[in-house]
Amino acid sequence: MIDSLTPNDWLKELYSISKECRRIALHYFKNNPKIEHKVDKTLVTQADLEIETSVRDAMSTRFPTLSVYGEEFGACPQDAPLKLIIDPIDGTYNFARGIPIFASLLAIEKEGVIIAGLVHNPATNETWSAAKGAGATYNELPISVSTISTLEQAQLVYCSLFGPESPHNNEPLIRLASKTHRQRSVGDFLIQMWVAQGYGEIGYDVNLKPWDLAPMGLIVTESGGSISQVDGSPFDIYQPTILTTNGLIHDEVLKTLHCPR
Fold first, then answer.
1. Cα dihedral sign for 187, 122, 227, 225?
2. Please, which residues bridge with residue 226 across strands?
3. Residues 79-127: pLDDT tens digits?
4. 2-134: which CATH architecture?
């Protein structure tokens, strides 16, 4: 049975489990979540732990042979042929501070390819999703990238400029920003979702894990965009960077990042 499920079938499963993610997240968001620091000094809350536990339990009941690659309770082997990848709360710093920009990230990877992905923000009840070959949606309505075709007209959406979430060398990012019309740092999942929706033309982020990245590439490409690592290498969720564009300016963005003149 599990082998016969299509990307659209898997996306329906992701929608189903995202409802429980939302219930748990909102409960803690409204009731001052307890915050702890992990060994790597990143934050974790009870909501992170309960969401991932709930998803793992639900999927183990429905699909006992499905592997799970999660942030809080460990990763299955990277080469597992079929896996669910989950970040229970992307944007934990926002969540902990009461900022309504956080999301549960869910994706299905089959034979090394993401075939279904979903991003759900419980605070705003927004959902971005895609199934391979079926286009991308925002709240179940089709979305597409923008048609802006020059860097000078583009809006850049990026990560932090300084601190642990910033590039080791932020000069290329600053150089790119100086060539664009407008720049916004919204952080986390929203960087790439804005590109997919056409709200920005360039999304730049670094220092990421597979669960931070799993749904992003599929949603952006299914909305018509382009994606790579920030050095121009092919996008890979097991590598720590992501560069997305509307496709029309991708080469120009890479040239600007890596050619100082």
1. negative
2. 245
3. 899 999 999 999 988 998 899 999 999 999 999 999 999 999 999 999 9
4. 2-Layer Sandwich (3.30)
Domain 151-258 belongs to what topology? D-Maltodextrin-Binding Protein; domain 2 (3.40.190)
- Specify the pTM: 0.93
Q: CB atoms < 10 A from the CB of 47, how many?
A: 26
Q: Are 195 and 109 in contact (CB under 8 A)?
A: no
The per-residue pLDDT for range 228-259, each reduced to its tens digit, is 999 999 999 999 999 999 999 999 999 999 98
Residue ranges of the domains in the chain? 2-134, 151-258
DSSP of the chain: -GGG--HHHHHHHHHHHHHHHHHHHHHHHTS---EEE-TTS-EEEHHHHHHHHHHHHHHHHH-TT-EEEESSS-B--TT-SEEEEEEEEE-HHHHHTT-S--EEEEEEEETTEEEEEEEEETTTTEEEEEETTS-EEETTEE--------GGG-EEEE--SSSTTS-SS-HHHHHHHHHSSEEE---TTHHHHHHHHTS-SEEEE-S--HHHHTTHHHHHHHTT-EEE-TTSSBP-TTSS-EEEE-SSSHHHHHHHHH---
